[in-house]
Specification:
The complex is a heterodimer of chains A (130) and B (389).
Chain A lengths: L14 H8 L4 E5 L5 E2 L14 E5 L3 E10 L6 E8 L4 E6 L12 E8 L6 E7 L3
Antiparallel strand pairs in A: 1-2, 1-3, 4-5, 4-7, 5-6, 7-8
Chain B lengths: L6 E8 L10 H16 L8 E4 L9 H6 L6 E3 L7 H14 L5 E8 L32 H16 L3 H15 L13 H6 L2 E3 L2 E2 L9 E8 L1 H6 L5 E11 L13 H12 L8 E4 L4 H10 L8 H4 L19 H5 L7 H13 L13 E10 L3 E11 L1
Parallel strand pairs in B: 2-3, 2-4, 9-10
Antiparallel strand pairs in B: 1-7, 1-8, 4-7, 5-6, 8-11, 10-11
The chains are: A mainly beta (130), B alpha/beta (389).
Bound molecules: zinc ion.
Organism (chain A): Neorhizobium alkalisoli
Protein name (chain A): OB-fold protein
Pfam families (chain A): OB_ChsH2_C, zf-ChsH2
């Protein structure tokens, strides 16, 4: 699979996330009021509306929530939702894998890959066990 | 027992074209608008409310209202993608009840086949202010992939099979063979569907709807006006709408807004799923229609795979005749927004004006449901329940 991810356009809400990604760190937002982690990161908690959300280092481990292999694209790729160990589920791609051997519930781990323009590390996942 | 009317659908018109190289988008809107007015027996000057989506070119309703030279006192451009047009029916009924308009025109039209948008890929707003955009576009989000994920998870949770999904397309094709305007009129088999190429696992090519030009329009009006016209009375007795997001990352993508929009509409109408004689379901993909069937309560959650088998959705054969025009899978899917055509075929069924080969005998109650946006990402379900009077 040679699909390369287009670079995101960070917003004021997300700039710390993307800057951290370029340092190899995977951050998520957690609320200090209700203690819940959420995805995608926002300044205000989507559960209790508190502004006391803080960036936390996430483990980068998770499980495939669902996936689909887009095999008719010029550069086929696997789009997926991964449920993070910290709780929330995020959209991503599964890479470095046999797309026909994936399964829901399969453990995966974070791998940063450069965006098409090489400027931004993008959080993707690969199967934990080959 | 008759149910109280919110409003009446007095006119409905589906554009006959599926490929419209020689008609402008504005003219398509005008043709469906005037077609629906003629169907109702009303004139352009009777229209005082106008409802449209972003398929209407220009700023909201302004350009089209000017193009058709409508004299309006109420407008509504609610946009929930393909489910907008059923929400427009509900909002028109509310506006009429509130005295804000008497004759509401709802239009949908466009020509995606002429504008290079016919590949099934979703053209997303490239707006950095759209808060979710940067969390989805880097991963190649597109419509096939997200519906593929929904289908994959339904298979995983409930054991739904490719053959069961295929039955939805088979039923649609049985209906489309009788529709001279349908894009695809060939009857297909379960084998045809599961042997068509995989496009986004587990979706095969024949699990996907068509892309068409054209459009449709509806006229919603107050009871006194509907009863003065010479058309069968189609009463709107229940409506519901339900936007659904990702709940901060704690979602179940196989649960649709139809659970809430359906419950709201059934409660308002005072009827239950077993009372419904005909359903129009937005079939962007086979799985889309299936999730609506279970979330509207026509079968228990997770059992839709078995429910749709053996022709159970085919008119005259099964228990739940659906999309008797051939639906989006075979007939028509103008502007990739399927809600409008769902309402139109439900009106035909209530009037007894569907094709005789697919007309449900004595169809007193019909339901139309649409899922707009992207199931599994963000979507809105809308439900309307219609009764013959
Ligand atoms: Zn909170």
């Amino acid at each position: 699979m040679t699909y390369q991810n287009p670079a995101p356009e960070p917003s004021p809400d997300s700039l710390p996330f993307w800057q951290a990604a370029n340092r190899g760190e995977f951050l998520i937002k957690q609320c200090e009021e209700c203690d819940q982690a959420h995805w995608y990161p926002r300044p205000c908690c989507p559960f209790c509306a508190s502004a006391k959300t803080v960036w936390r280092q996430a483990s980068g481990r998770g499980k495939i929530y669902s996936y689909s292999y887009l095999r008719r694209m010029a550069e086929p790729y696997v789009i997926a939702y991964v449920t993070l160990e910290e709780g929330p589920t995020m959209m991503t791609n599964i890479v470095d894998c046999d797309p026909e051997a994936l399964s829901i519930g399969q453990p995966v781990t974070l791998v940063f890959k450069p965006s098409q323009d090489g400027e931004q590390a993008v959080p993707l996942f690969r199967p934990l066990e080959p | 027992m008759p149910h109280s009317a919110l409003a009446y659908i007095a006119g409905a018109y589906e554009h006959p074209l599926r490929n419209a190289p020689d008609t402008s988008v504005a003219q398509l809107h005008a043709e469906v608008a005037f077609g629906a007015l003629a169907d109702a027996g009303l004139s352009k000057d009777d229209v005082d409310g106008f409802f449209c989506g972003p398929d209407a070119p220009g700023t909201g309703p302004l350009s089209l209202a000017d193009y058709m030279n409508l004299k309006l006192r109420h407008v509504d451009t609610t946009n929930t993608s393909g489910s907008s047009y059923l929400i427009h029916v509900a909002h028109a009924a509310q506006a009429i009840a509130a005295g804000k308009c008497n004759v509401a025109l709802i239009t949908l039209a466009g020509r995606p086949r002429q504008q290079g948008k016919s590949k099934g890929a979703l053209k997303r707003a490239d707006d950095p202010n759209q808060p979710d955009f940067q969390w989805e576009s880097p991963f190649g989000i597109q419509i096939l992939g997200v519906y593929g994920m929904v289908a994959q998870r339904h298979r995983n949770l409930y054991g739904t099979t490719a053959e069961q999904m295929a039955w939805v397309k088979v039923a649609a094709s049985h209906h489309a063979q009788h529709n001279p305007h349908a894009m695809l009129r060939d009857v297909v088999t379960v084998e045809d569907v599961v042997n068509s190429p995989l496009v986004a696992d587990p979706l095969h090519r024949l699990d996907c709807c068509v892309v068409t030009d054209g459009g449709g329009a509806l006229i919603v009006t107050r009871p006194e006006i509907a009863k003065s016209l010479k058309r069968p009375l189609v009463k709107v007795i229940g409506c519901g709408e339900a936007p659904v997001g990702q709940n901060g990352g704690y979602m179940e993508i196989t649960d649709t807004g139809a659970q809430r929009s359906g419950a709201t509409a059934f409660a308002q109408a005072g009827v239950k799923p077993a009372d419904i004689g005909y359903v129009s379901l937005y079939d962007s993909f086979t799985i889309t229609a299936m999730l609506q069937i279970e979330d509207l309560g026509f079968c228990p959650k997770g059992e839709v795979g078995r429910f749709v088998m053996d022709g159970n959705l085919i008119s005259g054969v099964g228990r739940l005749p659906f999309n008797t025009d051939g639906g989006g899978l075979c007939n028509n899917h103008p502007v990739n927004r399927g809600g409008m055509t769902k309402a139109i075929e439900a009106v035909r069924q209530i009037r007894g004006e569907a094709h005789p080969a697919v007309q449900v005998p004595d169809c007193r109650l019909a339901l139309a449901n649409a899922i707009g946006g992207q199931l599994g990402v963000r979507h809105a379900s809308s439900t309307i329940i219609l009764e013959r009077e």
